[in-house]
Amino acid sequence: MEKDPGNVEGWLRLAQARSVLGDKEQAVVAARRATQAAPDRPDTWLALARMLNPAPGAKPSPELESALRKAVELDPKNAQALYYLGLAAAENGRKDEARATWTKLLQQLPPDSPDRKELQEQIDGLK
């Protein structure tokens, strides 16, 4: 990959492979390289956020939230980015921000979407 640092797909595959092998540190490094190679692609920022996903019980890092914010900035209707950005806000105690983010997502879901009920329950649970 060092010979072709602009190979976004290669960096994304390497990040995923490192993650599967349990090498989280190198998975994050590869995902960061993907964002450097293609900073205007929301999928690179989502990949970085996935690699930065905290261990159970740990709070999302500022870098994870920053990656999700960048993905939403590039694609404001990206359901996955909106969901996880709301989740990160909720887990970090910012319930108003989580509610606003999830409400935005809820408004773009089709009325018959099976995800609507679960998302509404999560919004309602932000007390």
Written description of the protein model:
This protein has 127 residues and is an all-alpha fold. The mean pLDDT is 94. The chain is built from 7 helices and no strands.
- What is the 3D shape? globular
E-strand count? 0
Rg: 16 Å
Structural category is: mainly alpha
Percentage beta strand: under 5%
- Helices, by number, come to 7
**Oligomeric state, counting identical vs distinct chains:** single chain
Helix content: 55-70%
Largest sheet: none
Write the element-wise H/E pattern from the N-terminal end onward: HHHHHHH
* Separation, N- and C-terminal Cα atoms: 47 Å
> Spans with pLDDT under 50 lasting ≥5 residues?
none
Let me know the average pLDDT. 94
Itemize the secondary structure elements and their pairings:
Elements: H1 8-20, H2 24-37, H3 42-51, H4 62-74, H5 79-91, H6 95-108, H7 115-124
Helix pairs in contact: 1-2, 1-3, 2-3, 3-4, 4-5, 5-6, 6-7
Key structural traits:
127 residues, mainly alpha, 7 helices
Give a brief description.
With 127 residues, the protein is mainly α. Helices cover 69% and strands 0% of the residues.
